[in-house]
Design a protein that fits this description.
alpha/beta; Rossmann fold; 7-stranded mixed β-sheet; 5-stranded parallel β-sheet; binds zinc ion
Amino acid sequence: MSSCQVCRKKINLSLIDMGHMPIANDLKKSKDNKCNLFPLEVLLCEDCKLFQLSVRINPQSIFSDYVYHSSYSSSWLAHAKNFANKVKNDIDFSQNNFIMEIASNDGYLLKNFDKNKFKILGLEPAENVADIARKNNIPTEAIFFNEDNATYLKNKYGKPKLIIANNVLAHVPDIKNFLRALDIVSAKETFISIEFPSVVNLIQDFQFDTIYHEHFTYLSLNTIENLINKLNLKVFRVEKLDTHGGSIRLWLAKKSNDIKIQKNVHLERSKELKSKIFDSETLKLFSRECFKRKDRFNNFLNEEINKNLKIYAYGAAAKGISFLNFCGDNCKKILGVFDKNEMKQGCYIPGLNIEILDPKHINEIKPDYIIILPWNLKKEIKKDLSFISNWGGKLISFE
Ligand SMILES: [Zn+2]
Protein backbone atom coordinates (compact mmCIF):
# COMPACT_ATOMS: atom_id res chain seq x y z
CA MET A 1 0.00 0.00 0.00
CA SER A 2 1.23 3.54 -0.71
CA SER A 3 1.30 6.39 1.74
CA CYS A 4 0.38 10.01 1.06
CA GLN A 5 3.37 12.15 0.07
CA VAL A 6 2.04 14.96 2.23
CA CYS A 7 0.48 13.52 5.38
CA ARG A 8 2.17 10.08 5.22
CA LYS A 9 -1.13 8.28 5.89
CA LYS A 10 -1.83 4.99 4.11
CA ILE A 11 -3.91 5.51 0.96
CA ASN A 12 -5.70 2.96 -1.17
CA LEU A 13 -8.51 4.84 -2.89
CA SER A 14 -7.73 4.54 -6.59
CA LEU A 15 -8.84 6.92 -9.34
CA ILE A 16 -7.40 4.78 -12.12
CA ASP A 17 -4.76 2.09 -12.52
CA MET A 18 -3.31 2.45 -16.03
CA GLY A 19 -0.90 -0.46 -15.63
CA HIS A 20 2.82 -0.31 -16.41
CA MET A 21 3.71 2.48 -18.83
CA PRO A 22 6.88 4.12 -20.19
CA ILE A 23 7.87 7.65 -19.14
CA ALA A 24 5.95 9.70 -21.69
CA ASN A 25 8.70 12.16 -22.63
CA ASP A 26 11.37 9.46 -22.78
CA LEU A 27 11.50 9.50 -26.58
CA LYS A 28 13.70 6.81 -28.11
CA LYS A 29 16.55 7.73 -30.46
CA SER A 30 16.32 4.43 -32.33
CA LYS A 31 13.67 1.83 -32.93
CA ASP A 32 15.08 -0.93 -30.77
CA ASN A 33 16.04 1.14 -27.73
CA LYS A 34 14.90 -0.65 -24.61
CA CYS A 35 12.11 1.04 -22.74
CA ASN A 36 11.56 0.80 -18.99
CA LEU A 37 7.99 0.56 -17.78
CA PHE A 38 6.75 1.89 -14.45
CA PRO A 39 3.41 1.56 -12.64
CA LEU A 40 0.98 4.40 -13.36
CA GLU A 41 -1.83 4.64 -10.85
CA VAL A 42 -3.50 7.70 -9.32
CA LEU A 43 -4.59 7.46 -5.68
CA LEU A 44 -6.56 9.87 -3.54
CA CYS A 45 -5.63 10.71 0.03
CA GLU A 46 -8.96 11.07 1.80
CA ASP A 47 -7.32 13.17 4.44
CA CYS A 48 -5.64 16.04 2.57
CA LYS A 49 -7.57 15.41 -0.71
CA LEU A 50 -4.42 15.18 -2.79
CA PHE A 51 -4.68 13.03 -5.92
CA GLN A 52 -1.21 11.60 -6.46
CA LEU A 53 0.72 8.86 -8.23
CA SER A 54 1.21 5.64 -6.26
CA VAL A 55 4.85 5.49 -7.38
CA ARG A 56 7.05 8.51 -8.07
CA ILE A 57 10.01 8.17 -10.43
CA ASN A 58 13.15 10.18 -9.62
CA PRO A 59 12.73 13.60 -11.28
CA GLN A 60 16.41 13.75 -12.30
CA SER A 61 15.81 10.81 -14.59
CA ILE A 62 12.86 12.62 -16.12
CA PHE A 63 14.12 16.17 -16.50
CA SER A 64 17.92 16.14 -16.95
CA ASP A 65 17.69 16.29 -20.74
CA TYR A 66 14.17 17.36 -21.42
CA VAL A 67 13.15 17.22 -25.09
CA TYR A 68 10.16 19.49 -24.78
CA HIS A 69 10.24 23.21 -25.08
CA SER A 70 7.13 25.27 -25.31
CA SER A 71 7.79 27.74 -28.06
CA TYR A 72 6.04 25.54 -30.59
CA SER A 73 2.35 26.08 -29.99
CA SER A 74 1.08 29.46 -31.10
CA SER A 75 -1.98 29.32 -28.84
CA TRP A 76 0.26 28.63 -25.85
CA LEU A 77 2.49 31.59 -26.71
CA ALA A 78 -0.60 33.77 -26.93
CA HIS A 79 -1.74 32.50 -23.54
CA ALA A 80 1.62 33.47 -22.02
CA LYS A 81 1.49 36.92 -23.62
CA ASN A 82 -2.05 37.52 -22.37
CA PHE A 83 -1.00 36.53 -18.88
CA ALA A 84 1.93 38.97 -18.94
CA ASN A 85 -0.26 41.82 -20.20
CA LYS A 86 -2.88 41.09 -17.57
CA VAL A 87 -0.49 41.13 -14.64
CA LYS A 88 1.12 44.32 -15.91
CA ASN A 89 -2.36 45.87 -15.65
CA ASP A 90 -3.49 44.19 -12.43
CA ILE A 91 -0.39 44.61 -10.30
CA ASP A 92 0.89 47.96 -9.20
CA PHE A 93 4.52 47.48 -10.27
CA SER A 94 7.22 50.04 -9.69
CA GLN A 95 10.50 50.46 -11.58
CA ASN A 96 12.82 47.43 -11.43
CA ASN A 97 10.41 45.18 -9.50
CA PHE A 98 11.63 41.59 -9.34
CA ILE A 99 9.68 38.93 -11.25
CA MET A 100 10.67 35.31 -10.80
CA GLU A 101 9.26 32.48 -12.83
CA ILE A 102 9.53 28.86 -11.73
CA ALA A 103 9.92 26.33 -14.55
CA SER A 104 10.51 29.12 -17.02
CA ASN A 105 11.35 26.79 -19.91
CA ASP A 106 12.99 28.61 -22.82
CA GLY A 107 11.84 32.00 -21.52
CA TYR A 108 8.72 32.20 -23.69
CA LEU A 109 6.75 33.90 -20.91
CA LEU A 110 9.40 36.10 -19.30
CA LYS A 111 10.34 37.60 -22.66
CA ASN A 112 7.04 39.50 -22.44
CA PHE A 113 8.45 41.59 -19.57
CA ASP A 114 10.64 44.51 -20.58
CA LYS A 115 14.05 44.14 -18.96
CA ASN A 116 14.40 47.92 -18.70
CA LYS A 117 11.38 48.01 -16.41
CA PHE A 118 11.63 44.73 -14.50
CA LYS A 119 14.31 42.58 -12.99
CA ILE A 120 13.55 39.08 -14.25
CA LEU A 121 14.80 35.61 -13.38
CA GLY A 122 13.78 32.21 -14.69
CA LEU A 123 14.31 28.90 -12.91
CA GLU A 124 14.58 25.97 -15.28
CA PRO A 125 16.01 22.67 -14.00
CA ALA A 126 16.71 21.15 -17.42
CA GLU A 127 20.19 22.43 -18.29
CA ASN A 128 19.71 22.16 -22.05
CA VAL A 129 16.47 24.17 -21.93
CA ALA A 130 17.98 26.76 -19.54
CA ASP A 131 20.74 27.26 -22.13
CA ILE A 132 18.20 28.07 -24.80
CA ALA A 133 16.62 30.63 -22.44
CA ARG A 134 19.98 32.29 -21.78
CA LYS A 135 20.61 32.50 -25.51
CA ASN A 136 17.22 34.25 -25.71
CA ASN A 137 18.58 36.77 -23.19
CA ILE A 138 16.50 35.59 -20.25
CA PRO A 139 18.58 35.33 -17.03
CA THR A 140 18.05 31.74 -15.92
CA GLU A 141 19.21 29.52 -13.05
CA ALA A 142 19.27 25.80 -13.88
CA ILE A 143 17.88 24.64 -10.54
CA PHE A 144 14.82 23.02 -8.99
CA PHE A 145 12.68 25.20 -6.78
CA ASN A 146 12.63 23.79 -3.24
CA GLU A 147 13.26 24.87 0.35
CA ASP A 148 17.06 24.71 0.11
CA ASN A 149 17.22 26.68 -3.11
CA ALA A 150 14.60 29.17 -1.85
CA THR A 151 17.01 30.40 0.79
CA TYR A 152 19.81 30.64 -1.79
CA LEU A 153 17.54 32.59 -4.16
CA LYS A 154 16.32 34.96 -1.45
CA ASN A 155 19.89 35.75 -0.41
CA LYS A 156 21.12 36.24 -3.95
CA TYR A 157 18.20 38.06 -5.59
CA GLY A 158 15.94 39.36 -2.79
CA LYS A 159 12.19 38.82 -2.51
CA PRO A 160 10.10 39.07 -5.69
CA LYS A 161 7.10 41.30 -6.27
CA LEU A 162 5.65 38.59 -8.47
CA ILE A 163 6.28 34.85 -8.53
CA ILE A 164 4.93 32.93 -11.49
CA ALA A 165 4.53 29.19 -11.01
CA ASN A 166 2.23 28.34 -13.88
CA ASN A 167 1.86 24.70 -14.90
CA VAL A 168 4.65 23.49 -12.69
CA LEU A 169 2.98 22.29 -9.49
CA ALA A 170 1.92 18.92 -10.89
CA HIS A 171 5.55 18.27 -11.92
CA VAL A 172 6.88 18.84 -8.43
CA PRO A 173 7.90 15.60 -6.65
CA ASP A 174 7.47 17.06 -3.15
CA ILE A 175 4.60 19.53 -3.25
CA LYS A 176 4.71 20.36 0.46
CA ASN A 177 8.36 21.32 0.18
CA PHE A 178 7.60 23.46 -2.89
CA LEU A 179 4.82 25.37 -1.09
CA ARG A 180 7.06 25.94 1.92
CA ALA A 181 9.70 27.28 -0.47
CA LEU A 182 7.15 29.75 -1.85
CA ASP A 183 6.50 30.90 1.69
CA ILE A 184 10.27 31.39 2.24
CA VAL A 185 10.94 33.54 -0.85
CA SER A 186 7.83 35.68 -0.44
CA ALA A 187 7.66 39.08 1.17
CA LYS A 188 4.49 40.65 2.60
CA GLU A 189 3.90 42.41 -0.72
CA THR A 190 4.64 39.41 -2.97
CA PHE A 191 1.93 38.02 -5.24
CA ILE A 192 2.12 34.43 -6.44
CA SER A 193 0.35 33.09 -9.49
CA ILE A 194 -0.06 29.34 -9.69
CA GLU A 195 -1.88 27.78 -12.59
CA PHE A 196 -2.70 24.10 -13.05
CA PRO A 197 -5.09 21.85 -14.94
CA SER A 198 -8.08 21.30 -12.67
CA VAL A 199 -8.63 17.77 -11.44
CA VAL A 200 -12.35 18.56 -11.55
CA ASN A 201 -12.12 18.80 -15.34
CA LEU A 202 -9.83 15.77 -15.50
CA ILE A 203 -12.45 13.66 -13.75
CA GLN A 204 -15.60 15.12 -15.30
CA ASP A 205 -14.24 15.01 -18.86
CA PHE A 206 -12.35 11.70 -18.50
CA GLN A 207 -9.00 13.25 -19.42
CA PHE A 208 -7.02 10.13 -18.52
CA ASP A 209 -4.30 11.02 -21.03
CA THR A 210 -3.23 13.93 -18.81
CA ILE A 211 -2.08 11.28 -16.33
CA TYR A 212 1.58 10.39 -16.80
CA HIS A 213 4.68 9.92 -14.64
CA GLU A 214 5.77 13.56 -14.96
CA HIS A 215 2.51 14.60 -13.27
CA PHE A 216 2.96 13.57 -9.66
CA THR A 217 -0.21 15.29 -8.42
CA TYR A 218 -3.69 16.31 -9.72
CA LEU A 219 -4.91 19.45 -8.05
CA SER A 220 -7.87 21.51 -6.99
CA LEU A 221 -8.43 24.68 -4.97
CA ASN A 222 -9.55 22.60 -1.97
CA THR A 223 -6.34 20.59 -2.00
CA ILE A 224 -4.07 23.64 -2.27
CA GLU A 225 -5.92 25.33 0.58
CA ASN A 226 -5.51 22.21 2.70
CA LEU A 227 -1.80 22.14 1.97
CA ILE A 228 -1.08 25.82 2.67
CA ASN A 229 -3.32 25.95 5.71
CA LYS A 230 -0.41 25.69 8.11
CA LEU A 231 1.85 28.04 6.13
CA ASN A 232 1.78 31.82 6.11
CA LEU A 233 -0.01 31.84 2.72
CA LYS A 234 -3.59 32.31 1.56
CA VAL A 235 -5.49 32.06 -1.74
CA PHE A 236 -7.16 35.41 -2.39
CA ARG A 237 -8.36 35.05 -5.96
CA VAL A 238 -9.35 32.33 -8.42
CA GLU A 239 -9.52 32.57 -12.20
CA LYS A 240 -10.97 29.87 -14.43
CA LEU A 241 -9.10 29.23 -17.70
CA ASP A 242 -9.83 27.02 -20.66
CA THR A 243 -6.22 25.93 -21.22
CA HIS A 244 -5.31 22.24 -20.89
CA GLY A 245 -8.96 21.23 -20.97
CA GLY A 246 -9.84 23.45 -18.02
CA SER A 247 -7.34 25.02 -15.65
CA ILE A 248 -7.48 27.27 -12.65
CA ARG A 249 -5.15 30.09 -11.71
CA LEU A 250 -4.84 30.78 -8.01
CA TRP A 251 -3.42 34.00 -6.62
CA LEU A 252 -1.61 33.62 -3.34
CA ALA A 253 -0.18 36.11 -0.88
CA LYS A 254 1.10 36.07 2.67
CA LYS A 255 -1.66 35.87 5.26
CA SER A 256 -0.19 39.10 6.63
CA ASN A 257 -0.94 40.87 3.32
CA ASP A 258 -4.08 43.02 3.74
CA ILE A 259 -5.54 41.94 0.42
CA LYS A 260 -9.06 40.55 0.86
CA ILE A 261 -10.05 37.03 -0.11
CA GLN A 262 -12.40 37.42 -3.05
CA LYS A 263 -15.89 35.95 -3.10
CA ASN A 264 -15.08 33.66 -6.01
CA VAL A 265 -12.62 31.74 -3.84
CA HIS A 266 -15.47 30.71 -1.53
CA LEU A 267 -17.73 29.97 -4.49
CA GLU A 268 -15.16 27.81 -6.26
CA ARG A 269 -14.35 25.92 -3.07
CA SER A 270 -17.96 24.82 -2.55
CA LYS A 271 -18.46 24.17 -6.25
CA GLU A 272 -15.59 21.71 -6.22
CA LEU A 273 -17.03 19.89 -3.23
CA LYS A 274 -20.46 19.73 -4.85
CA SER A 275 -18.91 18.07 -7.92
CA LYS A 276 -18.17 15.04 -5.69
CA ILE A 277 -14.69 14.52 -7.10
CA PHE A 278 -13.52 13.21 -3.75
CA ASP A 279 -16.26 10.53 -3.51
CA SER A 280 -15.29 6.90 -4.05
CA GLU A 281 -18.29 6.32 -6.36
CA THR A 282 -17.09 9.11 -8.68
CA LEU A 283 -13.64 7.55 -8.77
CA LYS A 284 -14.98 4.14 -9.74
CA LEU A 285 -17.13 5.60 -12.48
CA PHE A 286 -14.14 7.52 -13.89
CA SER A 287 -12.03 4.39 -14.18
CA ARG A 288 -14.80 2.35 -15.81
CA GLU A 289 -15.48 5.05 -18.41
CA CYS A 290 -11.76 5.42 -19.29
CA PHE A 291 -11.46 1.71 -20.01
CA LYS A 292 -14.58 1.91 -22.19
CA ARG A 293 -12.92 4.69 -24.18
CA LYS A 294 -9.83 2.55 -24.60
CA ASP A 295 -12.00 -0.25 -26.06
CA ARG A 296 -13.74 2.19 -28.37
CA PHE A 297 -10.41 3.43 -29.75
CA ASN A 298 -9.11 -0.10 -30.26
CA ASN A 299 -12.30 -1.04 -32.11
CA PHE A 300 -11.82 1.92 -34.41
CA LEU A 301 -8.20 0.96 -35.13
CA ASN A 302 -9.07 -2.66 -35.85
CA GLU A 303 -11.90 -1.77 -38.22
CA GLU A 304 -10.04 0.86 -40.21
CA ILE A 305 -6.77 -1.07 -40.42
CA ASN A 306 -8.68 -4.06 -41.82
CA LYS A 307 -9.76 -1.75 -44.63
CA ASN A 308 -6.06 -1.14 -45.38
CA LEU A 309 -6.28 2.54 -44.56
CA LYS A 310 -3.20 4.62 -43.71
CA ILE A 311 -3.60 5.81 -40.12
CA TYR A 312 -1.29 8.41 -38.61
CA ALA A 313 -1.43 10.56 -35.51
CA TYR A 314 -0.47 14.16 -34.80
CA GLY A 315 1.26 15.61 -31.73
CA ALA A 316 3.95 13.63 -29.89
CA ALA A 317 3.41 15.44 -26.58
CA ALA A 318 3.26 13.53 -23.30
CA LYS A 319 -0.53 13.52 -23.41
CA GLY A 320 -0.67 11.71 -26.74
CA ILE A 321 2.04 9.26 -25.74
CA SER A 322 0.14 8.45 -22.56
CA PHE A 323 -3.08 7.97 -24.54
CA LEU A 324 -1.47 5.60 -27.06
CA ASN A 325 0.33 3.54 -24.44
CA PHE A 326 -2.81 3.21 -22.33
CA CYS A 327 -4.68 2.00 -25.41
CA GLY A 328 -1.96 -0.60 -25.83
CA ASP A 329 -0.04 -2.63 -28.40
CA ASN A 330 -2.72 -2.25 -31.04
CA CYS A 331 -1.45 1.33 -31.50
CA LYS A 332 1.75 -0.06 -33.03
CA LYS A 333 -0.35 -0.24 -36.21
CA ILE A 334 -0.31 3.56 -36.38
CA LEU A 335 2.23 4.31 -39.10
CA GLY A 336 3.73 7.50 -37.66
CA VAL A 337 3.13 10.51 -35.43
CA PHE A 338 3.66 13.96 -36.93
CA ASP A 339 5.12 16.70 -34.76
CA LYS A 340 6.43 20.19 -35.58
CA ASN A 341 9.18 19.98 -32.94
CA GLU A 342 12.40 19.24 -34.84
CA MET A 343 14.01 17.88 -31.68
CA LYS A 344 11.43 15.09 -31.63
CA GLN A 345 11.45 14.22 -35.34
CA GLY A 346 13.26 10.96 -36.11
CA CYS A 347 12.72 9.74 -32.53
CA TYR A 348 10.31 6.96 -31.57
CA ILE A 349 7.32 6.92 -29.23
CA PRO A 350 8.43 5.02 -26.09
CA GLY A 351 6.71 1.69 -25.57
CA LEU A 352 5.27 1.55 -29.09
CA ASN A 353 8.18 2.38 -31.41
CA ILE A 354 6.14 4.59 -33.71
CA GLU A 355 8.36 7.06 -35.57
CA ILE A 356 7.89 10.81 -35.11
CA LEU A 357 7.78 12.53 -38.48
CA ASP A 358 8.04 16.03 -39.87
CA PRO A 359 4.52 17.25 -40.82
CA LYS A 360 5.89 18.46 -44.18
CA HIS A 361 5.69 14.81 -45.31
CA ILE A 362 1.90 14.71 -44.87
CA ASN A 363 1.45 15.87 -48.47
CA GLU A 364 3.52 13.00 -49.89
CA ILE A 365 2.16 10.31 -47.55
CA LYS A 366 -1.49 11.32 -47.94
CA PRO A 367 -2.83 9.64 -44.79
CA ASP A 368 -6.45 8.45 -44.73
CA TYR A 369 -6.75 9.40 -41.08
CA ILE A 370 -4.80 11.68 -38.79
CA ILE A 371 -5.70 11.25 -35.14
CA ILE A 372 -5.25 14.53 -33.27
CA LEU A 373 -3.75 13.62 -29.92
CA PRO A 374 -3.45 17.01 -28.15
CA TRP A 375 -7.21 17.69 -28.03
CA ASN A 376 -6.52 20.95 -26.19
CA LEU A 377 -4.96 22.30 -29.41
CA LYS A 378 -7.53 20.68 -31.68
CA LYS A 379 -8.81 23.92 -33.19
CA GLU A 380 -5.35 25.14 -34.14
CA ILE A 381 -4.27 21.75 -35.56
CA LYS A 382 -7.49 21.25 -37.53
CA LYS A 383 -6.91 24.59 -39.21
CA ASP A 384 -3.27 23.75 -39.99
CA LEU A 385 -4.09 20.33 -41.44
CA SER A 386 -7.37 21.09 -43.21
CA PHE A 387 -5.59 20.48 -46.55
CA ILE A 388 -5.75 16.68 -46.06
CA SER A 389 -9.38 16.82 -47.17
CA ASN A 390 -7.92 17.37 -50.68
CA TRP A 391 -7.40 13.61 -50.95
CA GLY A 392 -10.31 12.65 -48.69
CA GLY A 393 -8.17 12.39 -45.55
CA LYS A 394 -9.96 12.79 -42.25
CA LEU A 395 -8.94 14.48 -39.01
CA ILE A 396 -10.32 12.81 -35.92
CA SER A 397 -9.92 13.06 -32.19
CA PHE A 398 -10.94 10.81 -29.33
CA GLU A 399 -11.88 12.51 -26.11
ZN1 LIG B 1 -2.63 13.21 2.49
